[in-house]
Amino acid sequence: MVFKMKEKAGQTAFSVRTTEKMLLHPLTLAFRNSHAHMEKPFLEEYFVSSLPLIRFSFFFAILLFAVFGILDAYLIPEQKHLFWLLRYAIFCPLTFGLFLLSFSKYFKKIMQPAMAFVVVVAGACIITMTVLASPPASYSYYTGVILVFMMGYTVIKLRFIWATAAGWFLVFLYEFAGFFFTETPVTVLVNNNFFFISANLIGMVACYAIEYNTRRDFFLKTLLDIEREHVSQARDNLETMVQKRTSQLTKVNTSLQKEMNERKRLQSQLVRHQKMEAIGLMAGGVAHDLNNILSGITGYPELLLLQLPEDSELRKPIEAIQDSGERAAAVVADLLTVARGAASTRVIANLNSLVTEYLDSPECRNLQTLHPNILCHKIVEDDLPNISCSPIHIKKCIMNLITNAAEAMDQSGNITVETTSFLPDLQWAEEHGMEVMTYVTLTVRDTGAGISEKDLEHIFEPFYTKKEMGRSGTGLGLAVVWNTMEDHAGKVFVKSSKQGTRFQLYFPANNDTPPSPLNHRQPEEVMGNKEHILVVDDESTLRDLAGKMLENLGYEVDSVSSGELAVRFLKDTPVDLVMLDMLMDPGMNGRQTYTEILKLHPTQKAIIVSGFSESEDVKATLKLGAGGFIKKPYSISELGQAVKGVL
Q1: Is-above-0.85 flag for pTM?
Q2: Are strands 500-510 and 532-536 parallel, antiparallel or unpaired?
Q3: Closest CA to 629 of 611, 607, 613
């Protein structure tokens, strides 16, 4: 019976559906499907209501079974002692024991099987008497089993499934005993079986009807109780309608407030994302120009140092110029990472190895020298899955996080670097905007004073720093971390309190195997053998620098300032390799130039040079057949390795 509350024109009414159909299992008669919840309370009530009758039935069965012992003395006096043994030493004590057990709290769990057992024992005893009795007395003992059927199917409240199992067991037991252990005539046995099986079937029907009607009474009573409860609820609802509607309005208002706060949070994230993209775009353009400038600052000192004697007074200032250029190039590399356009190669690597490599690096040892009272602890998970990454950028993230952690503590403290694997559940993934997949995590914790809530909103923005600019940082460290994680389809989360700060980086796991480490070529191995190389670059300084480096490496070099001039040059003069700048203005870029060159020389070897990004043009040029990519500024060794690798 289902109640539905309807509201119309300010009135409240309740409709009642009274066509509910009782859902029972056809064999066990147990409540099922949507009514399955009624089974347990029904059995509880059935037990309570049946217990007095069950105790009486036990007592009555003992009395009846004992009284029939008089019949034994009359019909088979020579075997009465054996029959009395079955009656008074087996059945009566067993049944009396169950009668006493019915007063125990454990009886409820075994009530049905216990009663079925009594029925089986009673019937088995009578069948045994039938086997032991001499004809013709044995022919009449089977009627006792019919009395057992009547008792089991009707009086003692045995459930249909248990009563049926016990009844048919006795039928088969009688058949077995009649055929194999008695000399009962076939006609008598058939006659007995007719009455025996008929009595069993009639008992089944009676038992089924009794339990079915008992369950129906319980079902209707339950529906009536539900109806009363709903009527009571309806009355309460009518009395408290105003309060409920007020509560609903309060909830709606709270939900609306949460939605507004969530919208503000998302808008703040969007503004921050747009701000970082704008700054990144600017940083990328600046980085490209700076790399072209720094190529000369780092490249020419390297050429000069190759020509100066070891005792020259000029070596030290030139080395200082070169070192300054390299440090500036490192800052530009951070700018390119912020721009999310750094030319990087993804390889399969293990995060444990990257952590160990940084902790064993000169940079980390220098940091330990600056902060001798800060201890760094490493906790790594064995059998950690691999990740697809740019190792140089991941190690830069590790360096930035550990450096920030060290500088966040005054004189002493602890830094913990931990790696784990993590498989989120659906709820966690949705809350954090991530997919349900295995991640490899890097956690860096410190025991510093923490980051203020106001600063937490800005720590990943480029150039935002609480340090002294130019002395302890550039303001790009955490921006590099954030952009690196974006480029690697990962996430970075930060939690901070007065007890310290924790950064967690999540990388998608990769089951591929890391490649074998490459052996770097020795200086003599990168020397050329008079191969002819054409340098194509719109910057005259860079053309000159590249030419001098290549000549120093033993190559013959020509150079042109545009893609159009390169195509014109190659029409008449074939070369072994083209060193092609990617971004040239005005005129054709590197991809367009290489496309035209391939029309002249389909197997022309080339390497691409750029101060900025591995853009779509770069990728397309590599697919066309260019053999390598080198980023400005580059050293003589890097250039030699790249050229030698293609040739």
Answers
A1: no
A2: unpaired
A3: 607
